[in-house]
């Protein structure tokens, strides 16, 4: 189960467990062998990507479980569990700008919720044997591999768009047009397939489109209206510009996304937002109204270590151990003023926490399927935009949509259960 504990404040979830649920019965290849001779294999997302045992930054000892080395001249910084001595520079006092002041006000508003709510969920998890904090022998810092999918999308922009066919199914390992058509694994089992010369795992009944914001037409051509749309935009900020780790998208360009055209009535729209108040205001005051979405709630993803400690100090002025989600409902009438919707009898609650150990892989978010299920209709059609992974029964779109599906992120346990041996 991906949800370990739930209470009135939120959920404690196990992201790795949710990923693994998709690959317990994976077929290596597609219909290339007789159905009686297809081997079933179990793939697991490598545990090392969730091996976060100590906070990333430790400034002061907070408990007996966290060791901190400090002196007048040095500060111990833990990056992926590796100590690095960082010399203190001369502090320069300066006035906070308006964005920093707004962030400070927001933090004070939700600080107690994060501290008490996360603490309650973590303690409940520990009582069940979760978040024990035990460090396995030989645990090391993980260096993720590069992803070239975004570059391939840029190259594909020169290719003509064939709008005659919006959906293609995978029947066997073959060359497919992944850039201008939605690709589907229509089987009721996950598959290991070769795409663009690389091996990827595809969950059962998943759909995906590998493209960027300039090519969203196949989403419109497929003719489906979605009951849940989750967005994880590559927000623009100074650190991203300096590091060039990934491309970013100016906020105003998000309005080009056809969310209002692919949303069913009362569709639940969920957007991951940075801790910058201007981004949060943009989503609630500009982006959602532009799509006809009424903001209804804010949730927080709280990131903890395997021992249950915040990955960053709660009051750190630079990095916070949480991220924000803004939730709203789509209505074709942009001037809608009511927050009463008929699709789900369960009202959408405000200020809920999703507590989990984050992945060491950049921008890998926890799945929201389990926690959002009570607030959407049965058998919903779900879409993730700016996705970097796939999920069963979901459609995923983005220029790195296959990133975390690459087989190098998984380990394999072969069960060799052949149909012929069962008969």
Reading the helices and strands in chain order gives: EEHEEEEHHEEEEEHEHHEHEEEHEEEH
In the sheet with the most strands, the strands line up as 1-2-16-14-15-13-12-17-18-11-8-7
Structural class: alpha/beta
Oligomeric grouping of the chains:
single chain
Q: What's the pLDDT, averaged over the residues? A: 82
Treating each run of at least 4 consecutive H or I residues as one helix, how many helices?
9
The largest sheet is: 12 strands, mixed
Portion in strands: 25-35%
End-to-end Cα distance, whole Å, is 31 Å
Explained architecture:
By secondary structure, the chain is α/β, with parallel strands linked by helices. The chain contains nine helices and 19 strands. Strands 1-2-16-14-15-13-12-17-18-11-8-7 form a twelve-stranded mixed β-sheet. A hairpin with a 2-residue loop joins strand 9 (191-195) and strand 10. The longest helix has 30 residues, at 98-127. Mean pLDDT is 82; it is low at 62-75, 336-341 and 416-423.
In short:
The protein has 423 residues and is of the alpha/beta class. Helix content is 20%, strand content 26%. The chain is built from nine helices and 19 strands.
Topology diagram in text:
Layout: E1 3-7, E2 10-13, H1 15-21, E3 26-28, E4 40-45, E5 74-79, E6 82-87, H2 98-127, H3 149-156, E7 167-169, E8 182-185, E9 191-195, E10 198-202, E11 206-210, H4 217-221, E12 226-231, H5 238-243, H6 259-262, E13 263-273, H7 277-291, E14 293-303, E15 322-330, E16 352-356, H8 369-372, E17 382-385, E18 394-398, E19 410-414, H9 419-422
Parallel strand pairs: 2-16, 3-9, 7-8, 11-18, 12-13, 12-17, 14-16, 17-18
Antiparallel strand pairs: 1-2, 3-4, 4-19, 5-6, 8-11, 9-10, 13-15, 14-15
């Amino acid at each position: 189960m991906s949800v370990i504990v739930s209470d009135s404040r939120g959920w404690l979830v196990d992201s790795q467990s949710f990923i693994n649920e998709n690959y317990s019965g994976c077929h290596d290849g597609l219909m290339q062998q007789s159905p009686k001779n297809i081997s079933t294999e179990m793939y697991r997302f490598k545990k090392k990507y969730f091996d976060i045992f100590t906070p990333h930054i430790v400034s002061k000892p907070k408990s007996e479980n966290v060791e901190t080395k400090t002196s007048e001249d040095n500060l111990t910084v833990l990056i992926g569990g590796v100590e690095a001595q960082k010399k203190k520079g001369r502090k320069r006092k300066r006035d906070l700008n308006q964005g920093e002041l707004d962030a400070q006000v927001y933090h004070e508003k939700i600080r107690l919720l994060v501290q008490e709510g996360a603490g309650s969920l973590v303690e409940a998890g520990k009582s069940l044997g979760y978040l024990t904090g035990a460090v396995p022998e030989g645990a090391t810092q993980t260096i993720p591999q590069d992803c070239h999918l975004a570059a391939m999308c840029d190259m594909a922009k020169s290719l003509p768009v064939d709008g005659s066919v919006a959906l293609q199914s995978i029947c066997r390992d073959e060359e497919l047009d992944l850039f201008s058509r939605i690709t589907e694994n229509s089987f009721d089992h996950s598959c290991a397939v070769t795409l663009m010369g690389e091996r990827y795992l595809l969950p059962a009944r998943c759909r995906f489109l590998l493209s960027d914001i300039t090519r969203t037409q196949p989403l419109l051509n497929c003719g489906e209206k979605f009951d849940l749309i989750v967005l994880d935009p590559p927000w623009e900020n100074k650190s991203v510009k300096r590091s060039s780790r990934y491309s970013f998208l100016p906020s105003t360009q998000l309005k080009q996304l056809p969310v209002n055209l692919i949303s069913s009535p009362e569709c639940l729209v969920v957007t991951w937002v940075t801790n910058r108040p201007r981004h949060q205001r943009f989503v609630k005051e500009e982006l959602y109204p532009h799509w006809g979405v009424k903001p209804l709630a804010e949730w927080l993803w709280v990131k903890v270590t395997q021992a249950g400690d915040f990955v960053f100090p709660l009051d750190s002025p630079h990095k916070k151990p949480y991220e924000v989600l803004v939730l709203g409902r789509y209505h074709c009438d942009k001037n809608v003023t009511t927050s009463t919707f008929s699709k789900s009898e369960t009202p959408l609650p405000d200020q809920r926490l999703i507590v989990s150990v984050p992945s060491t892989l950049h921008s890998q978010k926890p799945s929201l399927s389990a926690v959002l299920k009570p607030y959407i209709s049965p058998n919903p059609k779900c879409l993730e935009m700016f996705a970097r992974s796939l999920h069963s029964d979901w459609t995923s779109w983005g220029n790195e949509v296959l990133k975390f599906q690459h087989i190098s992120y998984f380990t394999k346990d072969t069960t060799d259960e052949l149909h012929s041996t069962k008969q």
